[in-house]
Automatic annotation (TrEMBL):
One function term, GO molecular function aspect: serine-type endopeptidase activity
GO CC annotations on file: membrane
Listed name of the protein: rhomboid protease
Subcellular location: Membrane
Enzyme Commission identifier(s): 3.4.21.105
Catalytic reaction annotation: Cleaves type-1 transmembrane domains using a catalytic dyad composed of serine and histidine that are contributed by different transmembrane domains
Domain Peptidase S54 rhomboid: 148-298
Pfam families, sorted: Rhomboid
Lineage of the species this protein comes from: Eukaryota, Metazoa, Chordata, Craniata, Vertebrata
Predominant place of localization: membrane
Length: 343
């Protein structure tokens, strides 16, 4: 009788992946799936670990790895901050090369700081710049009288109400946006950020029609809301340290910034009859974060176009944008709204 042939590399890799899957708490409640039964809900990293026999995965948790240098510990930290599944964390840790680096969030942050410093020197004011009489004359600010200038719906992110406004947005962009971009890439994170920015200005044009808009809070709140929602939805799988305390700190910081924006909106204006900038952009960013943003963050290494929920939220976002465009074209005239004069 002939000897049984040794298992192929794909079978061996499958067995390795199944042993890793046992490290996750939820794996105890269901048997490991067979390769042919996998759906798109499985990450590409899991499928590749099975289909590529030369993929070598260690059976112990990534957190137990010893002797790592500083850069390796940083990558491991980012993996545990953003990914809820051990198999995805291992795949990210082994495959991340920092090429390209997280350039999008860093570039946006540097531009915001540069524009703020330029305006501070020009206006000779850094705290509560928004109260300066010449502040709204800048061509980047969204102003309801100039809503036909389409670039203002995006460029308003480079203008901030003051150093206190810029400071919190920059901190959140770097602490949350950069790690997310390291994991999910500039295209996906940039998409969520820009979608939040545009949704923020359009939301103001619909819900707070007489107010201008400044600041990057729409994009920042989209990223932070998506990250916090992803942590809550995958609470048992997220292994980041002190996650409850850190979520509380993030929510407190967001609430303080939102409270500052609400206070400023209803504070007596420095350039009547035009009010101070609106706070509604924050809410537009949150809406994008808990819809499009959550789908992006939950589908690491997967094609978004294969996810039905992605197309549902894209359709909802598109409907909102079209509604806001038509609102801006017709509603201001039909409502006979008295807008503040152009700056």
């Amino acid at each position: 009788m002939g000897e049984h042939p040794s298992p192929g590399p794909a079978v061996a890799a499958c067995a390795e992946a199944e042993r890793i899957e046992e490290l996750e708490p939820e794996a105890e409640e269901r048997p490991p799936p067979a390769p042919e039964d996998m759906s798109n809900k499985r990450s590409n990293s899991f499928r590749q670990a099975i289909l590529q026999g030369n993929r070598r995965l260690c059976s112990k948790a990534l957190l137990e790895e010893k002797g790592l240098n500083l850069s390796q510990r940083l990558i491991r930290h980012v993996a545990y901050e953003t990914l809820p599944r051990e198999i995805d964390r291992k795949w990210y840790y082994d495959s991340y090369t920092c090429c390209p680096p997280p350039w999008f969030m860093i570039t946006v942050t540097l531009l915001e700081v540069a524009f703020f410093l330029y305006n501070g020197v020009s206006l000779d004011q850094f705290v509560l710049q928004v109260t300066h009489p010449r502040y709204l004359k800048n061509s980047l600010v969204y102003h309801p009288q100039l809503r036909a200038q389409a670039w203002r719906y995006l460029t308003y992110i480079f203008m901030h109400a003051g150093i206190e406004h810029l400071g919190l947005n920059v901190v959140l962009q770097l602490l949350v946006g950069v790690p997310l971009e390291m994991v999910h890439g500039a295209t996906r994170i940039g998409l969520v950020y820009v979608a939040g920015v545009v949704a923020g200005s359009l939301a103001v044009s619909v819900a707070d029609m007489t107010a201008p808009v400044v600041g990057s809070s729409g994009g920042v709140y989209a990223l932070v809301s998506a990250h916090l929602a992803n942590i809550v939805m995958n609470w048992s799988g997220m292994k980041c340290q002190f996650k409850l305390l850190r979520m509380a700190v993030a929510l407190i910081c967001m609430s303080m910034e939102f409270g500052r924006a609400v206070w400023l909106r209803f504070h007596p204006s420095a350039y009547p009859p035009c009010p101070h900038p609106s706070f509604v952009a924050h809410l537009g960013g949150v809406a994008v974060g808990i819809t499009l943003g959550v789908v992006v963050l939950r589908n690491y290494e997967q094609r978004l176009q294969d996810q039905s929920l992605w197309w549902i939220f894209v359709a909802m976002y598109t409907v909102f944008v079209l509604f806001a465009v038509f609102w801006n074209i017709f509603a201001y005239t039909l409502l006979d709204l008295k807008l503040p004069p152009p700056p």
